[in-house]
Design goal:
5-stranded mixed beta sheet, single chain, D-Maltodextrin-Binding Protein, domain 2, globular, about 35% helix, alpha+beta, 7 helices
Length: about 270
């Protein structure tokens, strides 16, 4: 029997089951060699055959278990549904890392109920680390875990002692804007890390290995699961208008969010009001 849409723990369990199957496929394909199937927004924005195969598997497994749900994925067509549940899928978040063999790429699957994320899984394919988050049945009591162990964001720290993760667009014009903003933000924080996977960066905020994350130009499938996990661990997220005309995602522990937000806006990441 299909899980009740309000059963966020059940949806998280299904997402984890499907993510494990997709991760096994991606891992196997990595050992066989990786080929670029196409490019998207630019010559450096690549899609591999494994991206496509992973998403096809995820869609098939979700349809098998919950045929009335909608699915939004990075590589395939949107599928409508009637259940009120929509799955948001990134078959490989961090494709360039996957292409180069850098161990920072993940399968990301989130479940939305009536447009609100209620469950999410981010599985680091290279390491096997599993990040899972879900809301309680009453919409509260959010849970975030890493390999089954509860997660919590890092404790309060001065802005100058915070390590901030970021990413860069594949479009040269937006990269320039991001680089200029980065130059202004860098002197105000401990340091910057660019690891190459939005979903995993958000999970790093959740586990306290970084103090915040900011990037313009990410898509819903990049952050739906990771942002839920981060919020469940004590972070806050916000979508702002970016200076380059795209959505700007900001994530940080709730206790230090306002100060980082001010610094990000002052650095020029956000559009002028």
């Amino acid at each position: 029997m299909a899980a009740d849409p309000a059963d966020s723990a059940g949806l998280a369990g299904l997402a984890l089951e499907v993510a494990r199957a997709a991760a096994a496929l991606v891992r196997e394909r990595r050992t066989e060699g990786v080929s670029v199937a196409a490019t998207k927004s630019s010559d450096v924005d690549v899609v591999t055959e494994t991206d496509r195969a992973s998403e096809e598997l995820i869609r098939a497994l979700l349809r098998e278990r919950r045929p009335d749900d909608a699915i939004l994925g990075e590589e395939g067509e949107d599928e409508s549904g009637t259940s009120g549940v929509r799955w948001v899928v990134d078959p490989i978040d961090g494709t360039v890392n996957f292409l180069y063999g850098l161990p920072q790429y993940a399968v990301s699957i989130a479940a939305e109920v009536e447009g609100r994320a209620v469950a999410g899984v981010v599985l680091n394919v290279a390491t096997g680390t599993e990040y899972v988050g879900h809301l309680g049945t009453d919409g509260g009591g959010a849970v975030a875990t890493r390999d089954g162990v509860p997660l919590s964001v890092r404790g309060p720290a001065p802005l100058a002692e915070r390590l901030i993760a970021t990413g860069f667009s594949y479009a040269a014009g937006l990269r320039r804007i991001q680089a200029e903003a980065l130059v202004r933000l860098l002197p105000r924080v401990r340091d910057i890390r660019r690891l190459g996977s939005c979903a995993l960066d958000l999970c790093h905020v959740a586990e306290g290995t970084v103090d915040g994350y900011v990037e313009e130009g990410v898509h819903l499938w990049d952050h739906a699961a990771g942002a839920l996990i981060a919020r469940a661990a004590g972070a806050r997220t916000e979508i702002l208008p970016g200076a380059g005309g795209h959505e700007l995602l900001l994530c940080a522990p709730a206790h230090g969010f306002a100060e980082l937000r001010e610094a990000v806006v002052a650095a020029g990441y956000a559009a002028r009001e």
